[in-house]
Sequence to fold (96 residues):
Amino acid sequence: MSLTRADVEKVSLLGRLLLSPEELDTMTTQLSQVVDYMNLLAELDTDGVEPMAHAVEMSNVFRADEVTPSLDRKAALANAPHHDDECYLVPAVLGE
Fold:
């Protein structure tokens, strides 16, 4: 199946594209080549090919949501320049 100039005109109308006559000729040629190539791919024997959602193997990259030991408060505040033994102290950003 090859595209006709009328097909390209209809698609350009639907896409609200204003194409000049030269652009219509160019697009008709280029889109026909794309459709011809897709028809070539349709000739491939894919009976033994398993359907897939991605071209490469995908795996979950997130770790399990489990509680693990972490720093205690004293160790976390040890290198803070300013703290009140409970939280970091930082300069006010939105005023005092």
